[in-house]
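$ fold --in a.seq
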Amino acid sequence: MMPPYAAPFCSLPPGMLLLLGLFWGAALGLFFFGGLWLTIRALPHSRRPHLLWSCSLALRLAFFLAGVLPLLRTGATACLGALAGVLLVRLVLTRQLRPQGEGA
């Protein structure tokens, strides 16, 4: 029996679930990797870099896991879309935010 909180999403066609997961994963990836970028930029100016790094990681992971939990309830299709979205955002951000003069 399908849990009541998953019923509205599980009735969608697999292609829509994949697309929903892709957008959701892209949003989560943007928050996670964007937060990582902001943290790395702030580390040299921090009086307690270990505390900043630890708190940033805990906050980013908590937000990410809280965002992934609803997708886990809908099934593998949305989760695969979310994985693709996170990896796509990671690829785009690492290319766009690369320091000048590094790589081609």
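$ fold --in b.seq
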Amino acid sequence: MLFKNCWMLLLAIALVTVGTNCNSTKMATDLSGQDAKWFKSMGWLNGLQILPHESVNQQEFYRQYHLNKLWWDEAFEFLKTHDLNTIADGKYMIDSGNVFATVSTLDPNSKEKTNWEAHKDFNDLQYIISGKAMMGVASTESPNSIVSVPYDAKKDVANFTVTGEKYYDAVPGKFYIFSPHEIHRPGFKVAGYNEVKKIVIKVRVPK
């Protein structure tokens, strides 16, 4: 009986530990209290009707936004004040050296030909204007994320091999934000969608 009771106690402790770890993982990206109310109010979008995807790391976005509100406001204002359906492909300087957009219409690469990448100097805001693609998301802090090509400061990119990743549909109406903490496999091909129009806005990470 004593052995059975001890075993049950150990099992209960293990279950509590697992539950705590799961909550910790969730809280690593989600805000709480007044910060969560700020995020959910969407007032920071300044009237932009496109919404953030549920995969956005709320804590990191909150930190980046408040480090330099102006740059993010400029990015959202660009999205709000341009007709994205008719905007021409090309590069658009929004705030010299700090915020710029690239619009492209293309046949996306396959999943296998799309590398996992992460940046240090810039956040990525990525939005599919028309068509459909897939986005892969992982954390640079995950033990399942291994550097395959070291960081290149000139290109502001490092490449990774990743296991245990998550994939999401990327469609009009929801934008993604990838901070330097997020590895992403951006905009790879979905069967049946041979043309995708997308915009990527780079927002500098303040030093």
